[in-house]
Amino acid sequence: MRKPRVVILGAGYGGMMTTTRLQKTLGTNEVDITLVNKHDYHYQTTWLHENSAGTIHHDQTRIPIKDVVDFNKVNFVQDTVVSIDPDNKKVQLEDGELEYDYLVVGLGFETATFGIKGIEEHAFTIQNINSARLIRDHIEYNFARYNNEPEDRPELITIAVGGAGFTGIEFVGEMANRVPELCKEYDVDPDKVRIINVEAGPSALAGFDSELVDYAVKRLEAKGVEFMLSTMIKEVTPEGILVERDGEQELIKTNNFVWAAGVRGSTIVEKSGFEVNRGRVPVRPDLRAPNYDDVIIVGDCALIMNEETERPYPPTAQIAIQMSYVASDNIKALVRGSNELKHFKPEILGTVASIGEGDAIGVIFGKRKLFGWTASVMKKVIDNRYLLKLGGVGLLLKKGKFNIFK
Amino acid sequence: MRKPRVVILGAGYGGMMTTTRLQKTLGTNEVDITLVNKHDYHYQTTWLHENSAGTIHHDQTRIPIKDVVDFNKVNFVQDTVVSIDPDNKKVQLEDGELEYDYLVVGLGFETATFGIKGIEEHAFTIQNINSARLIRDHIEYNFARYNNEPEDRPELITIAVGGAGFTGIEFVGEMANRVPELCKEYDVDPDKVRIINVEAGPSALAGFDSELVDYAVKRLEAKGVEFMLSTMIKEVTPEGILVERDGEQELIKTNNFVWAAGVRGSTIVEKSGFEVNRGRVPVRPDLRAPNYDDVIIVGDCALIMNEETERPYPPTAQIAIQMSYVASDNIKALVRGSNELKHFKPEILGTVASIGEGDAIGVIFGKRKLFGWTASVMKKVIDNRYLLKLGGVGLLLKKGKFNIFK
Fold first, then answer.
1. Cβ–Cβ gap A136/B144 under 8 Å
2. Which residues of B are catalytic?
3. What is the pLDDT of residues A84-101, one digit of tens each?
4. Subunit contact A137:B144, Cβ cutoff 8 A
C-alpha cells in the first residue's frame, strides 16, 4: 500500500514547526513528508526589523532548514509555489508539480497596500531576509551618498516609516539605536538625521495598554523619533510621502520609506480558489480549510476569530507556532485514519514589543505589564524558547539572544 | 616685526609632510603657519582602492590631522579652497580669506575624463574617503538589490573598471578578493558576478616591466577578472559602458562603473592663473611656480619632467613625499631670508602595485623585480615607513599594515 503523502508549503513558523513535529511523531514507514520552501533556510520573521535596521545580522535570524529538518525523514524541495489545485490535490511549483494526500499551507504574509498609490513601486517592506537586507543596505547607501552630493539633500538621511503598529514601532526603535552608528561610519551630523513615524490612527500600538504605549512613545521620542499620529499616507512618490492631517496635505521628503502598516495572507491561497476574508482563510476549528478535508492552513494565511473581541486574532508568530501543534496532531490523526481532530484554541501567553536595545514593553499572562529592560529580557526569553522548541539546545546556542546586559 | 605667514593648502601627502616638517624645524617665534584642508583628516590616497572595494575600513586609511599636527604650532583651518590670488597673495576660502607671505599648494588631483561622455554623471571615481566609501556602499547595495528584482539583472553584479593603470589594477585585485565575501553576505552565486577591466592601451600597467605585467594579468585572470585591452570607452550611460575594439562597438551592461583611467591636477590651480600643462604646473627646479617666487607647488599639481624619458613623472605619493622635503627646506630658507633654495630631484626607490591580498608586483632600486607575497610585504613596508615619517611610532602602530601573513 502506498504511504500517504503529506506536503507542507512554506518553512515559516507554522510550516517549520509542523514539519519538525511530524518528523518526530510519525515513522517513515507510515508517511511520506515533503516540505517546500523558496529558500533553503527558515527565518525568524519577528527579528527582521533588526536586520532591516542593521542592528543584528541576518545570519542570526535565519536557520538552514537542514539544521532542523532530518532529510532522511523529510523530502525538502527548494522551489516557489505558484498555485494549489485542491480539487485535484496538486501543487504547482515554478519547476515542477507535487501531488498530496494531505496538505499543510503555511505560505505566510504579503504586504497589504490598502490601495495607496506608489507603495509597490517606492516603498520598502520588512518581509523576508532579502527585503530586510535591502532596507539595511539602502539606508547605508544613502548615508554614503549624503557627503557626495553637491547640494544638501536631507531626504537621503530622513527615514520615514508608515505605521505605528508592532513592526513599525520595533523598526523605529532599532533605527534610533542604529543612527548614531551610521553617523559615525558615514561622517554625518546626527542632528540632521530624522526618523519619522506616520500612523493613521490616533495612537501608536493600537490595542495595547495605554500606559505601555505612553512609555514606548516617550522613550522613542527621547531617542529622536518623530511621531505623526492621525495622519494618512495618501501617496508614495520617488520624492517622498504625501501625508494628510486634519485635511492639510504635506510632502515629507524622504528617500527611505518603509511601509510597515499592513499585512495580508499570501495571494497564492486566494488565487487557488480557497475562500478568503481579507486575504486569510477562515479555517474550521480543526484548522482545515472550508470545503477541503485534506487541507490544513496555519499561520498568517489562517483567519481565526477572537470571540471575546469579535475581531480576528492578529497574525503573530505565537499563534502560528500554537497552530502547528494542532496541525501536526491533526495530520497525524488523518494519516492514521482517524477523524478525531483537535480544535485550535489560541492562548496568548504574552506580547512584547521591543523599542530598541535593552528596552521593550509588554503584557504577559493577559495582565502583567512589563517595561524597559525586564520586558526586553522577556522578549529574548520568548525568542530563545522558540529556538529550543524548533531545534533543541544546539540551535538555541547557535542563534539565541543571550546578550541581555548589552 | 610681523612674522612671515606660511599658508599650506591641502593635507595630502605633500601638504601634510611639509606641515609636519615645518613644525619641527621652525620656531613659533619666527613663523606663523596655517594649514587649510577640506576635512579634519589626512588620508592615504594609495589605500583608497581598498576602501572602495571594502577590503579595509576607511578609518584605517584616514588620520585625524590633530594626531600629527601640533595645533600649538600650526593654525588649522577646515575649509574648502575656492581660488588663489597669487598677485595679491591671498587665498579665497568658502568661508573666509587668508593672506600669505609664502604659499605651499598641495591641492592634489582631480579626475580627468578626457571628454568621454557620461563619466561625470554615471561613473564612480576613487578620489577621496567619501567617494571610496560610496563605491563600497554602491556595490554592496547592488548586491542586496540583486535578489529583490523580479527579473535577472546581471548588470547589478557586474563591476566594470575603466583603465588598467595602477589604480585600475589595484582596484580589480581588491574586488577579486572581495567578491566571494559579497556573495556570501548577499546570497549571490559567485559564478554570476563579473569583474571587467577595460583598457585603451594594448597592455595593462603601461610602462611596467612586461614579465611583471604578465604575472599580474595571469593572477587576476585566475581570480576571475576579465581584461578587455585595446578597447576604448566611448560613452558611459545609466545602462553601462559603450566600448569599441577593432572598430566594433559593444554595450557592456553594468550598474557599477569605476573610472580609474586618468587624473589631472586640481582645477583650482588652473583657474587661479598659474601656468599649467595638462592641469599641472611646470614648476621650477626649486618647486616654485613660474613667475611667483613665493608659491611652491607640491604633489599632483606639480609637473616635473623625467629627463631620461622626456615624459613627466607620474603623480605618485612617493614623489609628493619627496617634494615635501625640498618644499619644507625651501620654505625655511625663504622665511629666514635666504635665497639658496634646494633643487628637487626625484629618486624612485621602488614601485609596487598590489593585486589583491598577499599578492603584488614591483620594482625596487630601479632594477630588482618582486612578485607575489614578497612584493606585497614590500608594499606594506613602504606604507608603514610613510606612517612612521609622518607621525612617528604612535601613528605607525595605530594605522600601519602589519598583517603580512593574512
1. yes
2. 170
3. 999 999 999 999 999 999
4. yes
In single-letter form, the type of residue at position B51 comes to N
- Which of A134, A136, A187 lies at the smallest CB-CB distance from B148? A134
State whether B332 and B241 are in the same domain. Answer: no
b/e A124-155 (16+ beta carbons within 10 angstroms → b): bbbbbbbbbbbbbbbbbbbbbbbbbeeeeeeb
**Do A309 and A193 share a domain, yes or no?**
no
CATH number of the domain bearing residue A98: 3.50.50.100
Q: Distance between CA atoms of A304 and B319, rounded to whole angstroms?
A: 75
B361 close to B177: Cβ distance less than 8 angstroms? no
> What percent of chain A is predicted at pLDDT more than 90?
83
Residues of B with CB under 8 A from a CB of A: 129-131, 133-134, 136-138, 140-141, 143-145, 147-148, 186-187
- Cell numbers at A244, concatenated: 494628510
Give the domain-ending residue among B205, B224, B259.
Answer: B259
Amino acid at A100: Y
- Do B213 and B275 reside in the same domain of the chain? no
∠ CA B230-B233-B237, rounded to 5°: 155
CB A50 within 8 A of CB A174: yes
Do the Cβ atoms of B144 and A131 come within 8 Å? no
In this prediction the ipTM stands at: 0.88
Q: Residue B272's domain spans which residues?
A: 5-38+79-111+263-346
DSSP H/E element including B351: strand B350-354
What's the gap in Å between the CA of A128 and the closest CA on chain B? 10
Query: Average pLDDT for residues B360-377, to the nearest whole number?
Result: 88
DSSP 8-state class, residue B46: G
The CATH number assigned to the domain holding B171 equals 3.50.50.60
Q: Give domain status of residue A85, yes or no.
A: yes
Distances (CA, A) of A378 to A76, A208, A220, B323: 34, 17, 19, 64
Do B156 and B179 share a domain, yes or no?
A: yes
Assess if residue B45 is contained within a domain: no
Cell of B345: 630631484
Are A134 and B140 an interchain contact pair (Cβ–Cβ within 8 Å)? no
Q: What is the pLDDT of residues B27-39, one digit of tens each?
A: 989 999 999 999 9
Of B134, B141, B143, the CB nearest to A138: B141
Q: How many domains does chain B have?
A: 2
- Which residues, including other chains, have CB under 8 Å from residue B268's CB and lie 6 or more apart? B81, B82, B83, B84, B107
Nearest alpha carbon to residue A118 among A258, A236, A255: A236
The single residue listed with the C-alpha cell 499585512 is: A263
Q: Are residues B149 and B255 in the same domain?
A: yes
Contact present, A115 and A308 (Cβ < 8 Å):
no
Flag whether A48 is in a domain: no
The pLDDT, as a whole number, for residue B324 is: 96
Residue A404 inside a domain? The answer is: no
Active site (catalytic) residues of A: 170
pLDDT confidence tier of residue B405, bands split at 50, 70 and 90: low
* Residues of chain A with C-beta less than 8 angstroms from the C-beta of B143: 137
Please judge whether B141 and A140 are an interchain contact, meaning their C-beta atoms are less than 8 angstroms apart. yes
Whether the Cβ atoms of residue B13 and residue B299 lie closer than 8 Å to each other: yes
pLDDT of residue A403: 77
Choose the mutation target among A126, A135, A148 for the interface with B, i.e. most B CBs under 10 Å.
Answer: A148
| Residue finishing a domain among A259, A284, A306 | A259
